[in-house]
Design a protein that fits this description.
Layout: H1 13-16, H2 20-34, E1 39-50, E2 58-59, E3 63-67, E4 73-81, H3 84-106, E5 109-113, E6 130-131, E7 142-143, E8 146-147, H4 151-161, H5 169-186, H6 191-205, H7 225-237, H8 242-258, E9 274-275, E10 283-284, H9 293-314, E11 333-334
Helix pairs in contact: 3-4, 3-5, 3-9, 5-6, 5-9, 6-8, 6-9, 7-8, 7-9
Length: 335
């Protein structure tokens, strides 16, 4: 609690502004009067997606998104603050985790842009056309060339901008996943980096809530990270994905700790495989062969399922989500 505000006037400012004391007292008095009553505004910005697929029109209590005629997406968030600088700061604080979550929900990367060209093209009656079947896996959740969200995802984003999501493991995981998506979509030569970040995002999802048991021999904590990553994948996708998660974790460890890469040869129209003991099947492989596409889609699926389970927990429902086989499900939409 602020008990007093003191100003030390220097450099002859009172000679320039004889009424400086009265001005400062008035400013402090106005600030004290407004300290518990910040103004509320909807601020918005434009974002581009990679690949360029705009979000459909969705509106919650405190945020909205909609496609623009220039191919980008407008995102607006209700924020509270005392002046423009305060409002812009609050908006930025909420925009970043929102884009992170949306990346997990859509498999695209988001980037803020600052031009104001284009208008919202979605009509009011088009708002909140929800994705009904959430267990899609391959590609993107699109209809009519627009990215779609489920009702539960809209609610998760609503709680995210209101900072009511509780456990922040998912926001950390989404942040790492979104960084991986930015690299994956824009820098194919850096697939090993994207792969390492994808595995790290899974580690964040299943971070232990309490300290793990210690090793009886060396007394060091036994985190069992690789096994937790595999178990998390099996929980949501079934036993058929264990090999991919195990191999991805091993590849990540070799890349981070020994500098061993999989995408070790540039892509050309014609190439002759070269022997390489560190490569897949013992050969140096083109960058395309090191594409972590399956890991990316499995990781986003796991995070989406954990978001759904988190939403159920916040609202008092019990039970864990059923494991679903890795498959491309038909997508239906409803209001």
């Amino acid at each position: 609690m602020i008990a007093a505000v003191q100003f030390n006037l220097q450099y002859g400012i009172q000679d320039i502004h004889p009424d400086i004391e009265q001005m400062l007292r008035a400013c402090v008095k106005e600030a004290v009067k407004r300290k518990d009553q910040p103004s509320e505004h909807f601020l918005s910005t434009q974002v581009r997606t990679f690949p360029q697929i705009p979000l459909a029109h969705y509106r919650g209590r405190n945020w909205y998104c909609g496609p623009l005629t220039n191919g980008q997406t407008e995102i607006g968030i209700s924020v509270r603050g005392f002046d423009d600088a305060d409002l812009r700061h609050e908006f930025a604080v909420r925009l970043v985790p929102l884009m992170d979550a949306l990346s997990c929900m859509t498999n695209v990367a988001f980037e803020e842009v600052h031009d104001r060209e284009g208008e919202v093209s979605a009509r009011p009656e088009d708002a909140n056309q929800f994705l009904v079947e959430e267990d899609w896996l391959d590609g993107f959740p699109t209809r009519d060339h627009l990215l779609r969200l489920s009702a539960a995802q809209l609610q998760f984003c609503e709680e995210l901008v209101e900072e009511r999501t509780g456990d922040n493991r998912l926001t950390r995981a989404a942040s790492i996943f979104h960084k991986a998506m930015g690299i994956y979509r824009n820098l194919p030569e850096a697939h090993d980096v994207a792969m390492a970040l994808l595995v790290s995002s899974l580690e964040s999802v299943d971070l232990p809530q309490s300290n793990p048991a210690s090793c009886l021999t060396c007394s060091q904590p036994r985190y069992k990270i690789s096994q937790r990553v595999v178990d998390l994948g099996r929980k949501h996708l079934g036993p058929g994905v264990e090999r991919i998660f195990k191999e991805s974790y091993q590849r990540r460890s070799k890349y981070l700790h020994a500098g061993k890469v999989v995408a070790s040869q540039p892509v050309t129209s014609h190439f002759i495989p070269q022997l390489d003991p560190d490569g897949i099947e013992g050969c140096a492989t083109p960058s395309a062969a090191g594409n972590p596409k399956n890991l990316m889609e499995f990781t986003s699926f796991v995070i989406r399922r954990e978001m759904l389970f988190n939403d159920q927990s916040v609202h008092g429902q019990t039970g864990e989500p059923d494991a679903l086989p890795g498959r491309l499900c038909r997508m239906s939409l409803g209001t």
